[in-house]
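2.7 Reproducibility. Because tokenized structures are sensitive to small changes in the input, we list the exact sequence used for Ser/Thr protein kinase RdoA (MazF antagonist), including any N-terminal residues retained from the expression construct. No trimming or masking was applied before prediction.
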Amino acid sequence: MEEVEVVVAHHERATLRVGDVFLKIDADQTRTDVEVEAMAMAPIPTPEVLWRKPPVLALAALPGTALGRLGEPSTASPAAWAATGAAARMLHDAPLPPWPGRSLDEIASLLDGECEWLVTSGVLPADLVTRNRRVAEAALRPWTPVFTHGDLQITHVFIDGDEITGVIDWSEASQGDALYDLATLTLGHEEHLGDVVAGYGTDVDLDVIRAWWSLRSLLAVRWLVEHGFDPSSPGCEVDVLRSRM
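Resulting structure tokens (single pass, no recycling of outputs):
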């Protein structure tokens, strides 16, 4: 009998692995709707949908291994990072999904609220929050919407050698800023930004990517704390914020 592996679990959703099948259980079926539709639209490899019986979505496992993990050195080759950048460009050049993402005003409001909470709760020093809030301002500018993955973490990209075998976890896909995807991909792995940009194949504003590193990390800390994760682990979000100092 195959063992059941708990990949991730918190009060919003859980992912289990049984052999070569991933079972995703989500309390919010609109996220699953987005995931299934986005995977069908994406021009890059995605997991095969085996079946769906709400609240469970069954997906086939992708071959290969993750590009890396936040807080750990990536053993993937520069060519694999570049291939990931090329896949991101292919996605961003695809037709837009029909649903919008967060507006600039929504993101700015969220950022203000999270920064206030981080300071008043004492989770982070005020000077660290203030400095990163200033850095994050560069991301809060108009952009041309593209088809974004929305959560393009390195754990969501699978490779075999130098080739991309697929991208998972599409529930945050939407119209959005291309540089947000590139920033999410390289968060905590600044040393691979050059490889990703080379694969992406066009000039990008590196200051905006760095701004998204600060913004994403500021927005993530409370969620991580409240869901049982540690954003202060070496190489993770708090270290990213400190590196901006």
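The chain is about 40% helix and 20% strand.
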